Backbone:
């Protein structure tokens, strides 16, 4: 199954960027922090190179999307490629809670502390 | 913009290298209620904008899954962030409350700590749907009333609670989305609420 992101400016280019694939698994959360494991290499796909530059410091998936001006779905696919090639690592958010449960209180206490100190 | 400055490095402020835990909360509310303003007032970065595309099968989709029969909708949202400490960073998303947006809730915001429903008392109807959806997704939330200067009828929080048929256990707070301390207070109200809920849950075996 293929998908053309028809309303994102230059659909053909985007289609090329993601190699025509449309499936991005749920591996990358919006706030998963991505870190580069290597420098961009000459001839590398420009979106890959740009991502590696951005992620020299930890960078959330959603920030990468905003900087590259690409939809989240497309960025998830790009990141999947880079991960498969061992060029990035991912720091995931705490495990997704089930519908009715909450993150543990220790974590929330740390968040509160951080907010109060702003 | 002149080409001479187009190669300037972007003014991104990177996270600390020790940053390892990204957390998120969502600010939902009707059109023009002050979502972006609230995010901006508490964020350490200028709010950034991004989007997600949603593909739906069109009416009468054929078995071959022909691309032409699918429709694609784009939902845009903005976000800011707060570094809570060297390791933890909190992302705040300003999300439109309208219907099509909720199709993307799970893909974008599953695992969110909680939500802030931002309310403009002059257009309270816009809040109904968001509250209903959050309850449906079992996402804990607080209601923040953004007080606009030109709102002449200043309803009390109790009146607003009545109007929204909001249960007693949902915290409500007044705010001025433009003011940092006020925005901060909204976030603290939410996380305080989450903390209480988590403590209560941990106390029951
Ligand atoms: N007087 C007053 N004006 C406000 C307040 N909050 C926001 N505004 C103004 O209201 C307008 C809309 O605010 P936004 O933050 O853009 O609202 P929004 O919810 O992000 O709007 P959309 O993304 O377009 O739905 C802006 O001109 C703000 O300056 C407030 O607390 N008081
Ligand atoms: Mg906005």
Residues:
């Amino acid at each position: 199954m293929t998908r053309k992101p028809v309303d994102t400016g230059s659909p053909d280019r985007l289609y090329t960027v993601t190699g025509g694939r449309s499936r991005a698994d749920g591996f990358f959360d919006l706030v998963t922090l991505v870190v580069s494991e290597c420098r961009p290499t000459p001839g590398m796909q420009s979106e890959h190179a740009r991502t590696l530059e951005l992620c020299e410091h930890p960078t959330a998936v959603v920030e990468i999307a905003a900087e590259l001006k690409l939809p989240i779905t497309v960025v998830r696919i790009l990141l999947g490629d880079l991960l498969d090639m061992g060029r990035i690592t991912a720091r995931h958010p705490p495990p997704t809670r089930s519908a009715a449960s909450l993150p543990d209180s220790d974590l929330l206490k740390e968040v509160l502390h951080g907010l109060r100190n702003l | 913009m002149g080409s001479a400055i187009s190669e300037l490095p972007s003014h991104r402020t990177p996270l600390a290298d020790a940053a390892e835990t990204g957390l998120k909360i969502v600010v939902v509310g009707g059109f023009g209620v002050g979502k972006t303003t609230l995010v901006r007032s508490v964020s350490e970065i200028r709010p950034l904008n991004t989007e997600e595309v949603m593909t739906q099968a069109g009416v009468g989709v054929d078995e071959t899954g022909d691309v032409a029969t699918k429709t694609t909708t784009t939902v845009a949202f903005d976000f800011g962030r707060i570094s809570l400490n060297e390791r933890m960073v909190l992302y705040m998303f300003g999300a439109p409350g309208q219907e099509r947006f909720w199709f993307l809730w799970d893909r974008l915001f599953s695992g969110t700590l909680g939500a802030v429903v931002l309310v403009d008392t002059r257009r309270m109807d816009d809040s109904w749907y968001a509250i209903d959806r959050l309850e449906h997704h079992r996402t804990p939330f607080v209601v923040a009333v953004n007080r606009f200067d030109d709102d002449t009828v200043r309803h009390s929080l109790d009146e607003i609670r009545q109007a929204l048929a909001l249960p007693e256990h949902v915290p409500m707070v007044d705010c001025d989305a433009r003011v940092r301390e006020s925005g901060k207070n909204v976030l603290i109200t939410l996380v305080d609420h989450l903390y209480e809920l988590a403590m209560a849950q941990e106390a029951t075996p």
User: Anything to note?
Assistant: The first strand of chain A starts at residue 33 and ends at 36.
